[in-house]
Design a protein that fits this description.
The radius of gyration is 23 Å and the shape is globular. Strands 1-9-8-5-4-2-3 form a seven-stranded mixed sheet, sandwiched between helices. With about 400 residues, the protein is α/β, with parallel strands linked by helices. The chain contains 14 helices and 14 strands. It folds into three domains: about 5-225 and about 260-280, Type I PLP-dependent aspartate aminotransferase-like (Major domain) (Aspartate Aminotransferase, domain 2, 3-Layer(aba) Sandwich); about 225-255, no CATH class; about 280-400, Aspartate Aminotransferase, domain 1. It binds pyridoxal-5'-phosphate (PLP). Pyridoxal-5'-phosphate binds near residues 59, 162 and 190. Pyridoxal-5'-phosphate binds near residues 83, 84 and 159. Belongs to the DegT/DnrJ/EryC1 family. It is an enzyme of class 2 (transferase). Keywords: Aminotransferase, Pyridoxal phosphate, Transferase. GO terms for molecular function: transaminase activity.
């Protein structure tokens, strides 16, 4: 029997991907070149949004999204404890306060009821926004979240890092793709190698708002604006000491730094890889769904199974999660058999950093109950049928 290592997730790099990167390396632009816009346009088309802004990673995407919505000291923002910590940290980067609300134990995503309960426990106008997460690739019902956000005057940053290609069906039977910008103010994606599309490090923000798009473009590059219509200095200041009234055009070198931004740019060789990866994204998503269906059928009805991702329409299956008896035992047994399952996630509110801010174990019972028994199984497009059988059989051996 093949005994190679099976991780929980991994990138899929094809020969075309390699050629695309090499071809960029031989071109004029390693960064700030034409491939960035091409990647953004193609990504926006895939996701269904008007605009997309490529950035250096998913965390930078979250940071810029929070900045663009003016999160600052005293801002109060709600998110889920069952996420990668960056979903919450982006609020802290801007000096705002993070408020966690519990998850729905069936979908593992932020419970809209716990969010509303939290909102109602504070004075009117206390909260400024919500960061729900399409956790594991499950598309949250953003129609319901939008209605809640509008009721309490909140913005929504959708953390769609797990969910490119995922969708839910709204009350008008319209297929709403994660990140299409119809129901969130902005959505963020990551191109870390374990995610659907890999560029090494990389991220994207999608939005349908021109105003937010322009802000993001400037914040990504130091807060610099290069657009004569937007300059606030005078032409005399722009030209300098040799200015006279006959000079009516802005000098070619001129630009303005209008606010404090960052260098959160993606490189062109990463964009080259992203464009090439994106071309296979739909196909890879189908493979993930087939793997999910096979897991679901293999585990259904097993008495050690407490819950699982199952087969849900529109799910993007970044992760396939099972909730089991003796999770630690199973994790170690799989590891002995070179199958590296993983746990997503240690609840953010139990991290010492958030405990120092006032949270404690016991605060979010559904999240903690989930954490106590969850395990993410190998899930990536190049996982072969034989490898998946090995995972399924090893789990069966452990329990039988
Ligand atoms: C991966 C991930 C991020 C952060 O993305 P990076 O590209 O690693 O910075 C944020 N949120 C979620 C839910 C993620 O899975």
């Amino acid at each position: 029997m093949d005994n190679s290592i099976i991780p929980y997730g991994r990138q899929f790099i094809s020969e075309e991907d390699i050629q695309a990167v090499i071809s960029n390396l031989k071109s004029d632009y390693l960064t700030q070149g034409p491939l960035i816009k091409e990647f953004e346009d193609k990504f926006a088309e895939y996701i269904g949004s008007k605009y997309a802004v490529a950035v250096s990673n998913g965390t930078a995407a979250l940071h810029l999204a929070a900045m663009a919505l003016n999160v600052s000291e005293g801002s109060n923002v709600i998110t889920t404890p069952i996420t990668f910590v960056a979903s919450a940290n982006c609020v802290r980067f801007c000096g705002g306060n993070v408020w966690f609300a519990d998850i729905d134990p069936h979908t593992y995503t932020l419970s809209i009821e716990s969010v509303e309960e939290l909102i109602l426990s504070k004075p009117k106008g206390f909260f400024s926004g919500i960061i729900p997460v399409d956790f594991a690739g499950y598309a949250i019902d953003l129609e319901k979240f939008r209605a809640l956000a509008d009721k309490y005057n909140l913005w929504i940053i959708e953390d769609a890092c797990h969910a490119p290609g995922a969708y839910f069906i709204d009350s008008n039977q319209v297929n709403q793709r994660c990140g299409n910008g119809n129901l969130s103010d902005m959505s963020v994606f990551s191109f870390h190698p374990v995610k659907h599309i890999a560029t090494g490090e990389g991220g994207m923000i999608t939005t349908n708002s021109l105003e937010l798009y322009q802000k993001l473009m400037s914040l990504r590059t130091h807060g610099i604006v290069k657009n004569e219509g937007a300059y606030t200095n005078t032409l005399a200041e722009a030209i300098g000491h040799q200015y006279n009234e006959t000079q009516v055009t802005w000098p070619g070198w001129y630009m303005e730094m209008q606010q404090l931004g960052y260098n959160y740019r993606l490189t062109d060789f990463q964009a080259a890889l992203g464009i090439s990866q994106l071309a296979r994204a739909a196909e890879n998503l189908e493979r993930r769904k087939a793997i999910a269906l096979k897991y679901k059928e293999a585990f259904e009805g097993k008495k050690w199974l407490k819950g699982q991702s199952g087969f849900v329409e529109g799910h993007a299956y970044h992760l396939y999660i099972i909730e089991v008896e003796n999770r630690l035992g199973l994790y170690n047994y799989l590891k002995e058999h070179k199958i590296f399952a993983q746990v997503h996630y240690i609840p953010a509110h139990t991290m010492p950093y958030y405990k120092d801010l006032g949270y404690k174990s016991g605060d979010f019972p559904a999240s903690e109950a989930y954490y106590g028994q969850c395990l993410s199984l190998p899930m990536y497009p190049t996982l072969t049928d034989a490898e998946q059988d090995r995972v399924i059989n090893t789990i069966a051996h452990f329990y039988e």
